[in-house]
């Protein structure tokens, strides 16, 4: 008769808390880091990478010097009769040297970067965010607002992480940021139009236009990830629209 499979008992909550290194460890920690892109943050060891790259660079320079000397020797009038135009029939010494360079060069190109020591963390899944989204992420109160809570993922965390780990929906936060930008943009167009409609003094209308142009430029810089020239171009177009209403108001 087939033997019954022995079911391994689960460790008790006391055993897990007493020996987390045994029952949790790096497997669970790795699962936790992989559960969200924002958690995939690691040190890039920029200074160590630079030191290793410098060592590899020195090794490649030495190999390059040997290769050039070998080429010069076999291209000399007094050198041996060697076919320098063939790779398949190359001399063993140069072929071995090229193979050594071929092994060292890819390793060097992977290390050929120098990072700022003060910013030695890198996210494996980077994405461009607007300043408004960065402001939300930078505020613990805004980032952990219950409206962003992802109940499905939060309810499925491991037993020992219940009440400690919570997941929040990036899609909801991005939607909020997009809606906020749309509403601010509409307000920046509608409000000055109605204000200019109620004014008759040209100087006051210019003051209103100047204020809204500056506010619009500030909104672009804070809410959207725009480059300086893009922000100036959009502001110029916005100013042109307001100046049209100024001209219409002066004709009336």
Automatic annotation (TrEMBL):
Family annotation (PANTHER family): DUF6594 DOMAIN-CONTAINING PROTEIN, DUF6594 DOMAIN-CONTAINING PROTEIN-RELATED
Lineage: Eukaryota, Fungi, Dikarya, Ascomycota, Pezizomycotina
Transmembrane parts of this sequence: 175-196, 205-225, 231-249
A Pfam cross-reference name: DUF6594
Keyword Manganese: no
Highest rank taxon of the organism: Eukaryota
Keyword Oxidoreductase: no
Listed InterPro entries: DUF6594
Keyword vocabulary terms for this entry: Membrane, Transmembrane, Transmembrane helix
Start and end residues of each DUF6594 domain: 110-243
Protein name: DUF6594 domain-containing protein
């Amino acid at each position: 008769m087939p033997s019954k499979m022995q079911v391994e008992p689960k460790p008790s909550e006391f055993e897990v808390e007493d020996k987390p290194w045994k029952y949790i460890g790096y497997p669970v920690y790795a699962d936790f880091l992989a559960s969200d892109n924002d958690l995939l943050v690691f040190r890039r060891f920029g200074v160590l990478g630079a030191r290793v790259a410098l060592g590899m660079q020195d090794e490649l320079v030495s190999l390059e010097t040997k290769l050039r000397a070998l080429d010069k020797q076999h291209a000399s009038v007094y050198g041996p009769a060697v076919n320098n135009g063939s790779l398949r029939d190359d001399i063993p010494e140069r072929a071995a040297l090229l193979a050594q360079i071929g092994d060292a060069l890819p390793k060097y190109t992977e290390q050929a970067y120098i990072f700022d020591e003060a910013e030695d963390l890198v996210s494996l899944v980077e994405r461009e965010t607007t300043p408004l989204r960065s402001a939300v992420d930078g505020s613990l109160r805004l980032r952990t607002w219950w409206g962003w809570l992802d109940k499905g993922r939060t309810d499925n965390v491991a037993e020992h992480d219940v009440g400690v780990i919570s997941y929040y929906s990036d899609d909801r936060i991005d939607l909020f940021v997009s809606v906020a930008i749309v509403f601010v943009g509409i307000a920046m167009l509608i409000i000055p139009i109605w204000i200019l409609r109620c004014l008759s003094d040209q100087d006051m209308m210019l003051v209103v236009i100047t204020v809204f142009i500056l506010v619009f430029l500030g909104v672009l810089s804070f809410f959207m990830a725009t480059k300086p020239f893009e922000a100036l171009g959009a502001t110029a177009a916005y100013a042109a629209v307001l100046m049209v209403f100024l001209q219409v108001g002066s004709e009336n």
